[in-house]
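TODO from last week: model Phage gp6-like head-tail connector protein.
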Amino acid sequence: MTWVTLAEAKAMQRIDGDDEDGTVQLLLDGAVAHCLTYLNCPLYATPEELANGDPNGVVFNADIKTAMLLVFGYRYAYREDVVKRPREAERILDKYRKHAGL
């Protein structure tokens, strides 16, 4: 499933042309992976998919997409900064995040 398209990511950062498409896609893939890992639960495209019995799943929504785009935007703007994380995106995801049991 493509949660955020290349076109959406480029529009978010006002990137014209396709010279950076490889870099943009790499950063976008990393941003999506970061958010999925942070959520720590299966992500479903529709409520119908979730209704199939996964009590730990979450349905993809505007908050999650926004967080993915925020992480992408941060990584695009600050490519050399590999230590810091965009905390605002994690704050958005916190209400959907599943914490591991003890």
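Done. The first strand starts at residue 43 and ends at 44.
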